[in-house]
Amino acid sequence: MIKILTNAECYLPEGNFIRADVLVVGSKICAIGTFSNDWISKFPVSVETIDCENFFVAPGLIDPHLHLSGGSGEGGGFFSQSPQVLVSECVFGGVTTVVGTLGVDTTTKTMPDLLAKVKAYNEIGLKAYCYVGGYDIPPKTITGSVRDDLIFIPEIIGVGELAIADGRAPEPDLKDLARVSIDAYVGGMLTGKAGVTHFHVGDGAVRLKSVRELMSHHVIDPSKMYMTHVERSEALVDEGIELAKKGCFIDFDIHERDLHRWYKYYRENGGPLTQLTVSSDAGVSSPKEVWEEIRKCVLEHDIPLGNLLSHFTLNTAKALKFSSKGKLCIGCDADLIIFSKNDLELNHVLAHGKWMLKDQKLQLTRQPHLERRKFDIYEVHQTSN
Ligand SMILES: [Zn+2]
Asked: Which of 1, 45, 55, 194 is the most buried (most CB within 10 A)?
């Protein structure tokens, strides 16, 4: 139950790296410092020591937007629905916390199914949450009410992804939108959860108009407005930057695999760095690509790793009020990724103090009993990538 990562280059919330040892007890980070062999040898229980010389250690990544039940089929029929996202894909992407969402299809992709997937993730060892709803207003809920869902269902942390500027949903009536957003806000306030309204922003010319009008006509906390797919155009990013300056959170997905372009554009145009997060939008794409995208940004596009990681960790934890996640600090959850300094290859993943990936091999143990059917729904038996 006790693990010590020694000689690691640790990523701190300030964005810099320091050389240190990390003590993990159970599911928590209990100490960060320099521990002597003599001190380690005095533990009255067995200690697993992992030499992290030549490795970086950073908080596990948080993916704030992915379609755990699979994506809506928009390729001309039911056959084109994408299958559920696998736990193994998250692990190989360095992702230890996920937030599931429904999309355009809230008929065959349902909240009970999404919630069941979330619960399965939690049972297997990653941390999972979800938004309630989908593109439509009124949102499809579990209990019949957004507010009640937030209050009574621990895994539900906000409403979404509500579609704006998109041909697949009508632009929401302002009063309806306010009702839903405030229900999520109050549900979050009463339970200590984020209570965000998570917007899917389409490619319509109205862009973020509905969010601006919502905030000007109603009393809305800007930090509860969280918009994704904002990297569709420079005009949309410009509007996102204006709202981010007011305290809203905006998210870029990596579906097009061009994060470097939009990240540079955001920075160069004065986007507040604390308000930007990055998601996989997995469904068609995979959360495994999150780590590939980080490597690409750093190794091919010279974006400093220290700058980049906060958009996958600290900022996301702040947007979604995950107070014990997204940072390598004493008392935080032991969600850690350990990767090579040389080529940023992911070597180990720890979630809540348990190995999910060790020496690039999956360590998952829980699985459904499918001996008579030859497939592995959570890919728990896969041993390499
Ligand atoms: Zn979307």
From this structure: 194
Q: Which residue has the tokens 């001190």?
A: 39
pLDDT tens digits, 44-80 = 899 999 999 999 999 999 999 999 999 888 888 988 8
CA of 339 to the centre of ligand 1 (A): 30
Residue 117 Cα to ligand 1 midpoint, Å, equals 19
How big is the chain, counted in residues?
A: 385
Fold of domain 61-319: TIM Barrel (3.20.20)
d(CA 322, CA 24): 19
Residue 189 Cα, ligand 1 centroid: separation in angstroms? 25
State the pTM of this model: 0.96
Cα 96 to averaged position of ligand 1 atoms, centre (Å): 21
Å from CA of 213 to ligand 1 middle = 21
Neighbours of ion ligand 1 (CB under 5 A): 161, 200
- How many Å apart are CA 155 and CA 134, to the nearest integer? 16
Distance of CA 236 to the CA centre of its chain: 22
How many Å lie between the centroid of ligand 1 and the Cα of residue 172?
Answer: 15
DSSP string, 225-248: EEEE-GGG-HHHHHHHHHHHHTT-
Residue 287 in contact with residue 94, Cβ under 8 Å?
A: no
Per the DSSP assignment, residues forming a β-bridge with 55 are 340
Q: Where are the domains of the chain?
A: 2-58+329-362, 61-319
- Residue 168 alpha carbon to ligand 1 centre in Å: 11
The answer as to CATH 1.20.1250.20 being correct for domain 2-58+329-362 is: no
What's the sign of the alpha-carbon dihedral 165, 205, 261, 224?
negative
Given 3-state DSSP classes, what are the helix, strand and coil percentages for the chain, each rounded to the nearest 5? 30, 25, 45
Q: Which two tokens stand for residue 114?
A: 């999404």
Q: Ligand 1 centre and the CA of 200: distance in Å?
A: 4
Between the CA of 38 and the centroid of ligand 1 the distance, in Å, is: 53
